[in-house]
Here is the input.
Amino acid sequence: MNEKVLIVEDQFVEANDIQISLTKAGYNVSGIARSVNIALKMIENDRPDLVLLDIFLKGKLTGIDLGKKLKEENIAFIYVSANSNQEILADAKTTEPYGFIVKPFREKDLLVTLEIAKYRYQNSQETKIRKESLLQKQLTAIVERGEPREEKLLKIAMALQSFIPFEYLSAGSDLLPTDETSFLRLGFDEYQVIRPAELANIARQTRKVLDLLLQDKSRYDILVGETFGMRSNLVMQLMLKNGGTFHFYFYSRKPGAYLSDYAAEISKLQGPLTKTVEMIIGQDDESVREDSTSSPSIAVQPYFKGIVGNSHLLLNAFDQLSSVAPTSTSVLILGESGTGKERIAGCIHECSARKAKPFIKLNCAALPASLIESELFGHEKGSFTGAHEKRIGKFEQANGGTIFLDEIGEMSMDLQVKLLRVLQEKEIERIGSNTPIKIDVRIIAATNKDLEKEVAEGRFRLDLYYRLNVFPMVMPALRDRIEDIPALVTHFIRLYSEKTERNVVGITEEALNQLKMYNWPGNIRELEHLIERSILLSKTSILTNIILPSQRQTVAQHGENPGAKTFYENEREFILSVLKRCQGKVWGSGGAAEVLNVPPTTLSSKMKKLGIKRQFTD
Here is the structure.
């Protein structure tokens, strides 16, 4: 063990104790810094492999400020703090540390935290190398293909999705500003090519006006935002050998999607992309370019069994799934009850190299604490009262495959310790046995709890949280992806019509709008049960009346005394509430016009009359 560790701690006694512990364990301590400025100088002179970093230090700068620098430099670091409250955890999380340990701590806790940090750092580096290697192969293949420039740009856009997520991408050169090519994401690896003439038609602008907008980035951003409901944007400029520039404009429907620091990502991508774009521009592709007025699209749909929808939030989850599935990295799936966490876990297993091996599921909340240890690790015959025969536990059953631990937040503290040991040592012991059994199991855990809050309140181990949280995924609530409701309803009608042998084939527009306006506290599971019940009660082949559970909070909140407002005030407030639910999107699938069941032009006119402006935020 020769890892070089820098200690950043302003308390001499504590820093000295840490140094002694690390040296004894075989680490090479490169030094002790008492402030951020001293630490930066030491890092410049002798780059460490890992930094142990106190949050509160001498001087104006905090450990979190240094954490931001370390993230930029790609140096692994662990926070050390006497306080683990939720506010500090939230601030620390933005810098993406590789661990967090709370003072006072035992020497063993410190060493375990360092091992976890090394594990997480190694996994993240392997993932980055794999992604960059795959991108380079994709770019090389794109250049070599005898395809039109437009198709090549589309393939580049698809390759960039895992690095910089987007729902709309615009690509072009400053030498030909009116020859912009755009790509609208429709599904997983499915994009619509939008040329300037088509964009002018969709945005209801003349080509002359559009050409002017294409030469003014800020006005073009507003056009894209209003037309497609985009709320954030990011720019990547490529400097070409001929003195010109080529750009990629990334747009997302998620507000603040690009607030995270993408500078390092862009810096890595600029070199290979510049080379690829220059080679594409240099190729004579006019002979293969098609003069077509229709917009082609490419669709390469993977098999995400049982998951229905094409909302941007769900597509983001698919992107993450596709990125992590081929590895053996631990995954933590977060989200409310009923959002489909178990299905996502199943898809990760099916898209992995372990798909031919077992996929074992265990709900940690469904078993009493006295039984869950036996379920997980197994037991020997006679090891406790009632153990009449040997039992093989879930971990042994999953050997070579994947184990899915649902509701991990309900696991007792005692069992958390044993699970952490399994993750670290990759071996188990059956109850009543002293013989360790080596296992090779991928861990996927899920919870509907806020684990950071559970850690802060002492109900979940911090070291286990960081061990599981190597690759977190958040499943969106149904209320945040209402554009998926029509597809989900169609799917459940078909499913339960067959199961119940009822001739129900559809739903009225009015009933569907009812479902879109509901808050869905139970998410997809609640929608599924509601459709099943409605099919059983229906007397016709079309669902016309959906009986929704009573709900206190509705989409349209007219205040405590709506009668005191004018008709126009109530109408304006109602439209604003729907726009908020649709994240400002007016046109297209999942837009406010679709929810309100009115033509987009009518809604735009009404908004203008009521003084409602569509906002586009960077």
